[in-house]
Amino acid sequence: MIARLFVLACLALFAAPIASAQTFNGQEQAEIRAIVRDYLVRNPEVLREALDALAERSSAERWQQIKADPRDFSIGPVDAPVTIVEFYDYRCAYCHAALQWVLDVSRTRRDIRIVFKELPILSDASMEAARAALAARPQGRYLQFHQALMSHPLDRDMTTSDIDAIARRVGIDVTRMRRDMNNPEITAILEQNRAHAIDYNITGTPGFIINGELIPGFNQPLLETRIREAAREARERLTSTR
């Protein structure tokens, strides 16, 4: 009887709720709960392992959502073993400083994919520039526009006229861009980016996430160390599956 109930307990733990409700009567469910409780009290490490596994799975699912959003602009192979996600603000001095490094990595490393995520947190101009960049993306000039916005001097205000002039200079239809900036999808993307930043405890810009690990700020030596580690981990995973 005990063995049967232990099996039922395992089924209760791993089966879908509907299936367990259909399979067990009230007495069996009470017995299962008692056995599971007793087992976990006697073996608390099992619960810790389960919680650790759940946290790991949740983290993996969160990372998958962040790195694979088709609405984001990205550079590099979709199946690259290393993915860098950058959260940035167009009026952030450290984001400006990181720009050339990001571009150099994208040009020299074919094993890296870089995903761009706007996180306008510094000013109204930051928000307007982010909305403009997202609205212009369907026109196929995102990277050129991104670089130009990042190159606008920080000791000068970024006005609506400045944003329009920058867009026009890189070949963007400004009338279309301004119309598309009002698309609710733009707001949804920015809200999602902010939610992801909160999940990863990103409190400032830039925030880099490399294969799921946050590197806050523009710390080039630390970023490059993490890239080497991530590339090595990816090679080891590939080797172990062969």
**First CA to last CA: what distance?**
44 Å
Arithmetic mean of pLDDT: 87
**What is the CA-based Rg, rounded?**
24 Å
Write the H/E string, N to C.
HHHHEEHEHHHHHEEH
Strand content: 5-15%
Question: How would you sum up the global shape?
Answer: elongated
The beta-strand count equals 5
Range of helix content:
55-70%
- Count of runs of 4 or more consecutive helical residues: 11
> What's the story with the biggest beta sheet?
5 strands, mixed
Estimated structural class: alpha+beta
Widest beta sheet: strand line-up = 1-3-2-4-5
Poorly predicted residue ranges: 1-9, 13-21
Descriptors:
242 residues, five-stranded mixed β-sheet, elongated, alpha+beta
Notes on the protein architecture:
By secondary structure, the chain is an alpha+beta fold. Strands 1-3-2-4-5 form a five-stranded mixed beta sheet, with helices on both faces. A hairpin with a 2-residue loop joins strand 4 and strand 5. The longest helix is centred in the N-terminal third of the chain and has 24 residues. The N terminus is likely disordered.
Summarize the helices and strands and which ones pair or pack.
Elements: H1 2-14, H2 17-23, H3 26-42, H4 44-67, E1 73-75, E2 82-88, H5 93-108, E3 112-118, H6 124-136, H7 142-150, H8 160-169, H9 174-180, H10 184-199, E4 207-210, E5 213-216, H11 220-241
Parallel strand pairs: 2-3
Antiparallel strand pairs: 1-3, 2-4, 4-5
Helix pairs in contact: 1-3, 3-4, 6-7
